[in-house]
Amino acid sequence: MSAVVSPIREPLVTGGKTYHQITEDICSPTERTPSAAWVLAFIVAVTGLALFVFGVAWTVWIGIGSWNLNRTIGWSWDITNFVWWVGIGHAGTLISAILLLFRQRWRTGVNRAAEAMTIFAVICAGQFPLIHMGRIWLAFFIFPYPNTRGPLWVNFNSPLLWDVFAISTYFTVSLLFWYTGLVPDFATVRDRAKGIRRKLYNLLSFGWTGSAKHWQRWESLSLVLAGLATPLVLSVHTIVSFDFATSVIPGWHTTIFPPYFVAGAIFSGFAMVQTLMIMTRKILKLEDYITLEHIESMNKVILVTGTIVGVAYLTELFIAWYSGYIYEQFAFYNRVLGPYYWSYIGMMSCNVLSPQIFWWKSLRRNIFVTFVMSIFVNIGMWFERFVIIATTLARDYLPSSWSYYVPTWVEVIIFIGSLGLFFTLYLIFVRVAPVVAVAEIKSILKAGGDQYIGPNANKRHQTSQEAAQ
Amino acid sequence: MSKENKDVLYGLYNDEEELLAAVDQARADHLEIMDVYTPFPVHGLDPKLGLAESRLHIAGFVYGAIGTLTAFLFMTWVFTRDWPIIFGGKPYFSAPAFIPITFELTVLFAAVGMVISFYTVCGMAPGVNNPTLDDRITDDKFCIAFDVTDTEESFQDKLKGFFSQTGAAEVNTKPLPA
Which residues contact A405 (CB under 8 A, 6 or more apart)? Predict the structure, then answer.
C-alpha cells in the first residue's frame, strides 16, 4: 500500500517472516491432523448444537407454549438472543470494511476470522426470529412474493420487515466479501495440496491464478464492497433498534436507540473477536500475526464503545427524568430499581464499569485480563438486551397485566445450543480455511511488518530478536 | 476449451522489488509481457504494465442504481396502485418509510452484481480449472510470463537473457491452453 506508515509504530507481523514462512504458518493448520484440543472443543460444540436442534424441534413440535412468554411479555429470550447475536455479528464487517477504508493495517491479522465470526453470528441470529414465529413452516410469508391472497403484500412500512431486508442483505454481502477475500488463499492451499484435497480446494478457489489484472479487479471489488458494507453495517443495527424505537412502549420509544445500538454492537462484536482470537492464536500458534498490538488496538475499541454505551445509558435516564412524562419516568425507575434490578446491575457493571480498566496500558496488553473482560462484555451485552426487552414489557400501562418472566428449560437450551451452533461452524472454519488472510498479510509485510523498508527504516522499532540481543 | 496450446516462457522472481524493476526493464526493451502473476497484489505494478483502471466500480454503480429503482418503484406501485392500505394514518405514498428497504436493496444489488461480474470477467467459477504456471506463484514467487508460441530461437534467447539480467531465480517454459 502506498499510504504512509509511521516507522515508529510497532510491527504488525513479528518473527522476521519470509513470504514462504507466512504461507507455511497460516496454511499448515488446515493440513495437519486436528489437535486433541480441537477435537475436544468440537465435541463440546457439537453437543451444544445437538441441544439447539433438540430445543428447536421441541418448540416447533409443542409450539411456543413451551416457552414462558405470556400476554404481557411477548418477546423475551428469543429476541434478546437475536439482538445479541446480530450485535456480535457487527465486528467482522467493521474490521474488514471500516478499517480498510481508514487504512488501518492491523485489520489484516484479524479480519478473516472476524468476518467468519460475523457470518456465523448472523446465522445464529437468524434462527431466533424464525422460531419465535411459532409456525416456522410459514416463515416465507415475510418475503414479498406474488401470492394468491390478492396478492397481499408485506408491510413495507414496518421496521420488522426492514429487518428482514437488512439482515438478509447483511448476511449476503458479508458472505460475498468474506469469500472473495478467501479465494486467493484457497488457491494458496490448493497449490500446496495433492490428490483429492487439491481437487477440493480447486473447486473452492474458483480457478484463481494470481494474474495482475485479476488482482487489480480483486482490489477494486474489495474496496467497493468495503464502501458498501460500511453504511450497511451501520444500517443493520439501526434498523434492529427501530424494531423498538418506532413502537410506543415507554423505554423503547427513544431516538437515542440507533447510535446506542450500533455502539453496543461494535462493543460486543469486538469482545467476541477477542474471545476467539485469543484462543485461536494460542492453539494455532499465530502469535506472530495476531500480536499484542492487535489485542491492544481492539481493547481500545472496546473501551471507547463501552464508554459510548455508558453515556447512552445515562442519557436515557436523564431524558426520562427531563421529559416530565410519568410513563417514561416509571419505565426507567422500574428498569433500575424494579423486579429485574439484578439484570440492570449486570449490564452496568459488565458494560460500563469493567471496560474502564483498559485505561491502563498494562491491562490492555494483558492477555488473561483481556480474555476475562471479553467474556464479561458479552455477558453484559446480553443483559442489556434482556433489560431493554423483558423489564420493559413486564410493567406495561396496565398494572393488572404486570407479570414476571422466567425462561423455561427449552428457552435456556436453545440459547446455550446457539453457542454450540456458532462454535461448531467456527471450528470447522478453522480447520478448512486459512484463519489469517495470507495474501493480505504478505502485502503488509514490508510496509507494516518488522521488515519495514520505507523511508526512515533505520528508525523503526526493534524486532523481538533484536531486542533480545 | 483447449483448441491449441500456446508456449509460455516465464521467469520467477523472489521479491516484488525485483519484479517491479524487471517489468520496467521489459518495457524499456520493448518486450511484450503476456501476464504477471503474484502471490498478493503488488502496488505500483498496474501502471508499469499499462493496465487500465478496472471498470468494475462503474458496473457496481449501475447495479446499485438498478437496486434503488427496483425497490423504490416496487414499493410505490404496491402501496399506491396494487393494494393501497393506510398504515397509521400516513399517506399511501409514504416515501420516508421506503428508505430503509431502498437502501438495503441498493447495497444488495450492487454487491451481488459486482461479485458476479468479477468472477465472470476473470473467467472464474466453482470447478473452473485454470492451469497455473507454477505452484509457488500463490506462495512466494513473482512471475513474468511471455508468449513464445511460434517464435524464433533467437527471440527466446533474448528473453532468457532478459531474465538472467534482471535477476530471475528460475526460468522455465510451459504450454498453456490458449
Answer: A68, A69, A70, A73, A76, A390, A393, A394
Residue B124 and residue A182: Cα distance in Å, rounded?
Answer: 14
The Cα A173–Cα A171 span in angstroms is 6
ipTM, two decimals:
0.91
* Domain spans in chain B, listed from the N-terminal domain onward: 5-52+135-177, 56-121
Chain A neighbors of B57, CB-CB under 8 A: 220, 223-224
pTM to 2 decimals?
A: 0.90
Report the Cα A71 to chain-centroid distance in Å.
32
Q: Are strands B170-177 and B142-147 parallel, antiparallel or unpaired?
A: unpaired
CA A321 vs CA A9, A89, A314, A328, A457: distances in Å: 47, 33, 11, 8, 57
Q: Is domain B5-52+135-177 annotated with CATH 3.30.70.120?
A: yes
Considering CB atoms only, which of A162, A216, A225 is closest to B100?
A: A162
Crossing angle of helices A292-323 and A367-386, rounded to 10°: 30
Q: Tens place of pLDDT for every residue, chain B, 178 residues?
A: 445 778 888 888 888 888 888 888 888 888 888 889 988 888 888 888 888 888 899 999 999 999 999 999 999 999 998 888 888 888 999 899 999 999 999 999 999 999 999 999 988 888 888 888 888 888 888 888 888 888 888 888 888 888 888 888 888 888 887 6
Comparing alpha-carbon positions, the chain A residue that sits nearest to B83 is A152
Residues of A in contact with B90 (CB under 8 A): 157
| B89 and A CB contact within 8 Å | no
Residue A27 burial (C-beta neighbours within 10 Å; 0-12, 13-18, 19+): buried
